[in-house]
Specification:
single chain; 189 residues; three-stranded antiparallel sheet; Immunoglobulin-like; four-stranded antiparallel sheet; alpha+beta; 7 strands
């Protein structure tokens, strides 16, 4: 007789009585019962979330979940120029021209040193950030966190010794400055 023959026989009734029966008696699944008993340390805790997406329509094809309008003419860059927070371009000329606002940034030799891909212009309806790389050792940045009013588009033109930014206003109105510093309306003297 070997050691396997010496072990007591396990009957079906012995196994059924050794398992916890609280879950089956309370109407909960074993998963729910385990999570309730052990909390976030339960083995099945990761499976406890409920699916909150749209109901499956039974088709294997991809399904459009939402649609968002994109802005025409806005170049999308992998790294946003808004990641650079400090402006190191401190001098520029400003012109309010009806429905457009123009900024003239003098940069000697920028047309020769930089290609269009070196110039990134990111904007929202109320902010803008211009970053010029390969002009100096560090990127040159002009950033406005809050513009005087809202804009629809922002474009740039590179000339031999300057960059011209053109902003299109949503509403016609006079801009006394390019950025809104949160000050109350007052006359500029």
């Amino acid at each position: 007789m070997n050691s396997l023959d010496q072990s007591p026989e396990v009957t079906e009734t012995d196994i059924s009585t050794s398992l916890p029966v609280e879950a089956s008696q309370s109407g909960q699944s074993a998963l729910s019962e385990n999570i309730e008993r052990k909390g976030k340390h339960a083995y099945y805790f990761a499976h406890a979330h409920k699916a909150n997406g749209p109901k499956w329509d039974g088709k294997v094809e991809p399904k459009l979940l939402s649609r968002q309008e994109s802005q025409q003419g806005h170049r999308v860059s992998v790294k946003s120029s808004f990641d650079i927070s400090k402006s190191n371009i401190t001098t520029y000329a400003f012109l309010d021209d009806g429905m457009k606002v123009k900024l003239y940034i003098d940069m000697e030799g920028v047309g020769e040193k930089c290609v269009d891909e070196d110039i990134k212009l990111d904007f929202t309806d109320s902010s803008l950030c211009l970053v010029i790389t390969n002009y100096r050792s560090e990127p040159q940045c002009l950033s406005f966190g809050k513009l005087t009013a809202t804009i629809t588009t922002a474009t740039f033109r590179k000339k031999k010794d300057k960059i011209i930014l053109t902003l299109t206003k949503v509403e016609e109105g006079e801009w006394n400055t390019i950025n809104d510093k949160g000050a109350t309306d007052s006359e500029i003297v």
